[in-house]
Specification:
Layout: H1 10-38, H2 49-80, H3 87-109, H4 126-144, H5 152-170, H6 177-180, H7 183-217, H8 226-241, H9 254-263, H10 266-281, H11 284-289, H12 291-314, H13 317-323, H14 327-353, E1 355-356, H15 364-396, H16 404-450, E2 456-457
Antiparallel strand pairs: 1-2
Amino acid sequence: MAPSNSKQEAPSRLFIIAALVLLGTGMFWGVTGGLQYLIPGFLKSYLPFQKIRPLHVSSVVFWIIFSSTGAVFTYLQQHTGKKIYSRLLIKIQLIIFSLSVIAILISYCAGIFGGREYWEFHPILALPIVAGWILFLINFIKSAGSFRNQPVYVWMWFTGILFFLFTFLESYLWIFPYFRNNVVNDMTVQWKSYGAMVGSWNMLIYGSSIFLMDKISNSKNYSHSSMAFLLYFIGLFNLMFNWGHHIYTLPTHNYIKHISYAISMTELFILGRIIFNWRASVSAAKKNFHKTAYRFLVAADAWIFLTLLLAIIMSVPGINLYTHGTHITVAHTMGATIGINSFLLLAIAFDILNDTCLSFEPYKKLFNRGYWLANISLFVFWISLIGAGVVKAKWQLSTSQIPFSSMMLQLRPFFIVFFISGVVMMTGFLCIIYPLLKNNVLCYFKFKTTGKIQTHYYSPAA
């Protein structure tokens, strides 16, 4: 495992800096959407909820994509001890992705849609994303070299990159009349592709997390362990089949649902076990040296447990009939996206971006406050969504339903808690990412001006 070289890794680090901006943007749109739940008609003339929702979802999805890409490029260089095959391809990919995201967000604001679910933008804007991802795949294969005797994270990265491209293309099968004109086929393919797509970027995130754990412990025990490869194969199986629990309500074959139910929980269980066992093996000195990254890994482990608990309950077919389409599903998504993926990615971001020309010492208290604000408010946020989901689940399967407007009034107390905790959570995350962005942007421009930079290593959360 080669030492970090911030000059060599500069283009890939820009992916993570851009990702942190998208995280802040996504939280802003999320809080705005939460306010619209409380004040119907708020900003309706300019940015109604049907615009706010895709602005939030796309910003968060691209936060995951950008940060995962930056993590893979950076850690691949550290793993091989060599430069990436083509820095030019990295820069081209970054430009393509950045311009695409800007165009997508502008199109939402202008009311130009035409897509589905995660990708509500016009399908023409998917073409540059495909082109950029193909460059990613080529650059990774050329940089990795031989795949013989590689640690598990290299295989996870390769699988994640390859399957994301496949599932992204699959998610656009609806443009063909054969799928679009049959409701069951259309919904099955959509939910299948999105479920598998999440599994694809999970491969990138989990692989990078295992690399980081090996880096902190200064060994390759976990990346070559049988448990890590078990996580890889279960993750691959999940990627291919765990989407079945999304389609309990569709008239598809029962064996698909049963297989999905049997395997949908295993990936999180194995990942949680790996992180839990790894924590026990890391010495106090190594924990302190990588204090901030370590703390986010611990937080992610706690959220793995909570998300796994909720997911097990939701995956029981009889219960899923009630929870499907309610805020309980949203709670599960938020627990996985924020509590697991985002905390893991923040651990990676702190590891990669921590060597700057400016000290993080002035921000030590800000980091600590942000960390606890984000975790505590996320739990309150999560509980409020589950409470709202229980009320809606009872309503939607009630034989004597009250009017929808009356049901929404019953949910108002949950929405108030949801909004307040969301604002506090955004504040916590901004306390975390602001110093990272400020130091790295200032140091990047200093490097561009002078051509050299003195790095300062510091773990802010002492």
